[in-house]
Amino acid sequence: MPAGYWCPVLHAHLPYVRHPEYPEFLEEDWFFEALTETYVPIIRVLDGLLQDGVDYRLTMTLSPPLLSMMQDDLLVGRYHRYLDRLVDLAHREIERTQAHDARFTDLARFYAHELADVRRIFRETYGSDFVRAFRKHRDAGKLEIITCGATHGFLPLMDTVPQAVRAQVLVAVQHYKRVLGRDPSGIWLPECGYYPGVEQFLREGGIRFGFLESLGLTDAHPRPRFGVHAPIATPGGIIFLARDMESSRQVWSSESGYPGDVDYREFYKDVGWELPMEYLKDFLPDGIRKNLGLKYYRVTGKVGLGDKQPYVRAWALEKAASHAGDFLLNRQKQVEHLAGKLGRRPVVVSPYDAELFGHWWFEGPDFLNFLFRKMHFDQDAVKPTTPLEYLEQEPELDVVQPPYCTWGADGYAEVWLNPGNDWIYPHLLVAAERMVELARRYEHPDDRERRALHQAARELLLAQASDWAFIMKTNTTVEYAKKKTRDHIARFDYLYRALTHHCMLEEPILREFEGRDNIFPELDYRVYR
Amino acid sequence: MIRATLFPLPGAEGFPILRRMAEKIDGGKGGARVRVSAGGASKPKAGMARSSASGKVVRGKPAAKAKAASPKKAAPKVARPRAGAAATPKTASVAPARRTTMGRSRAGLSETRPAGLNEEDQIRSAKYLPRDLPPRLFEEERFLFPESYGVNRIRLLVKDPEWLFVHWDVDPGSVESLRKALGERAMALSRMTLRVVDPTNGGSSDILLPPGARGWYIRADVARRSYKAELGVTLPSGEFRRLAESNLVVTPRVGPSRDRASRRITFGQAARLPKEAGLGQRDEELRSVSGAGPWQGSSVDGAVEGTAPGAAAAGVADAKAARPAKGSRPGASDSFRPGGASDVYRR
Q1: ipTM field
Q2: Domain A424-528 architecture
C-alpha cells in the first residue's frame, strides 16, 4: 500500500485558429509547434511506458478546440507541410553545419532524426488522426481524459448570462461524447475559474469532478479537514481536487524550477532568428522571422543570448533524469509527511499546462518518462493515480464551499479583467444575451435561418475564448487577439441583424462563415434557450 | 493578494516573453503557468507585476472605453512582435499576411523535392494545398464595436475580493426626456452618477462620473459583502434620478474559515444529490454576509466570517465601538478618483 498518491494533470488547450482564407497563417503555427514538441513527444513517452509495462496514470484535458483542430483536414494537411518543411530544414542543417559549423552537426542530426520520428508517429502510427493516440491510452486504463469549456471561455465573468455558462459546458460535453465515445467524468474549468453556482451546469452535463486552485480549498467554508490534499464535495454536488503548490513550484517556478536549469535547451535561440534570411527563405514563407524549432544552445546561466553555450543533449538528459529523481524523492517525503499528519493517504495534485512539457521545456517529456519509470520501479511510497481511482480508494469527502477563485496570478481575475482587456466584456455579454434572445425567438426556423442560428452560436463561443483576454494582458500577439475578438463579434453581429431582420441574410456570406468557423459541426443553437 | 511578477528563466534576463508567461509563484498563492506559442513577444520584463504600468490598479479608476475598431485594409494584420536581444529590444512590427502561395508552387512535382519525401508522398501532400483562394465576401475589419447599445442598463462583475468592475449603457432617449423635463440649464448642472449600494446593510456611495465614461472599477470593502450598482443622474437639487439597476454580486471570502468541516458525503452520494442541490448556495452566501456595512454604524449581526474592518476578533460590543463613522473609513466610499480613462481603444 502506498503512503500516498500523486495525481498529475496536463491541461492541453489551444484556441481554435484556422484560416482557410490564407495559404499560410502564422498563428496556426501554435498548433503545429505544440503537436511537434509537446503532444507527439508525450504520446511517445506514454507509448513507451505502455510497451514496457510501466504502470503510470495521467489526467489530461483535451480541450474541444484542440480536439477539433486535430480532426480538421485543412489543419492536419498544413501540419504535414509544416513537418515536411522542418525535416527538410534539419537535413539542410546537417549539410550546413558539416561545412561551416561542425560543433552543431550532431545536434542537427539529432533534430533530423527526432522530427522524422515525430512524423512517423503522427502519420504512420496514428494515421494522422492523433485523437486515436489519446483514446488508446484511455482504453488501456492509464489516461483519464477530461473536458473543458467549449472554447475555454472564462466562466466567472459570464455568470450574469447563465445560459452562456451552460452552453460552454454542455457544448463541450456533447463534443467530447461525439469524439471520444463516452461521457466525460471530469472537467478542467477554464483557468480553474470557479464560482459558487457553476455546479448546476456541471451536474447537468453529467460531470462528477473538477479542479481548483489551492486557494479554493484553503479559503473554503468551512475549512476542509485535510487541507488541499484530499478532494472535497461542494454543496452543489461536484467533487473538486485542489492544486498542490509544492509540486507546482518545482516545475513552474521561473526562479527555482527545473526548466531553468543551465543544461536545458535555451528557448530563445532559434535558427529562425539566427540564420541568414537568404538561407531560410524556403522555410519562412512570409519572409518574416519566427521560431522554427531548431535550437542549438543551452540556458548556460544568467548570461546574455550572445553568451549562450552549445546544447549538449547528453547533459540535458542526465539533468532530466536527476530532476525526475529529485521530484520523486520530494513527493515521497511529502506524502509520508502528509499521511502522518492527516491520518489518511493524501493525494498530491500537480496540474500543468501540457505545452510546458516539450515546447517550453524541451526536456519535459524526458523528465516525465524518467519520473514515471522511477516511480514504478524504484519505490512504493507514492503511486500515480487519477481522480476517479483515488476516489475509489478514499471515497469520503468533506462538504465545503470554495470561494470564487482561479489559477491566475492573483488567484482571481486580474489577468482576464483589467484596463487592457475589460473593453471586451460589454460586447461579449451583450452578444450572449442576444444569442439567448435568438434562441428563444426562433421556435421553427427555416433551413437557412437554422444554419444562421447555429453559426451565430459558433461565433459567440469562439469570441468567448479566454485566450484573447489573456494575450491582451500578456501583450504578446495582441493584434491577433483583438482581431479574433472583433472578427467573431462582427460575424455574430451580422447574423444577429439578419435574423432580427435588420439586414438580408446572404447565403454566400453564411457559407463563408460556416467554411471558416467550422468548429462543432453538430452544435445546436437551442442550447442557449 | 498575490503580486504576480515576471521573472524570466535564469539566462533569459530582459528577454521577451512567450505568448503566455511564467508567473512567479514562489511564496505566493497564484499559479505560475507558461503557455507556449510561436514567436517571441516584445513585452519588457517588468510588465507583469500587478503594480506595473500595464496592470496598474488605481482606486476607482474608470474602465477603458469601448474599443472602436477602425476600418483596416483588407489584409488583416498579423502581429509579429520580435524577440528582442538583451541589449537592444526591437519594437514590435506588424506585417500584413500576404495572400500568396508559398515561395514556390508545390502543387504537383516541384524542382526542389524536400528531403525524406518520395515522389508519391509529395504528390499526396499537394492535395492539401489550396489551389484557388476564394475572394472574401465579408470584411470583418469594417466592423466597429458600438459605442453604446442604446439601452439603460448596468452590469456588475466581481474581479477579486477588493475590486468590482461595473459597466453600463445609456439610452439617449431617456437622457433627452430628462433634458426636456429639466430644461437645458438644470441638465447642464446635472451629473451622470454611479451609486454603489450595500443591500444587506443599507447605505450607499455615489460617484460622479466624467462625461462619456462607460465603465468603472470600484474598490470593495475588505469584508465579504454584497453589492448592487445603480446608474442615474444627480440633479442640481441633489436628487438621484435612477436610470438602471445592476445585478447583485457578492465578493468572495478571503482567508481560512474558523469552522472545521463537519458534513461528510461519499463519492457515490454526491452523484445522487438532487440536481438543484447547492442552488441556494448563492442565497446562503448572501445571507451569511452580514456585519456592518461600510457606510453605517449599525450593530453587527452575529458572528460571521470576515468581520467588519476595525472590529478584529472582539465581541459585538467592541465591534460597534470600533466602527468608524460613515465616510471616514477607507473603503468603497472614498476611493473614486476619476482620471486615467483609457483612450487606447478609440481609434
Answers
A1: 0.93
A2: Up-down Bundle (1.20)
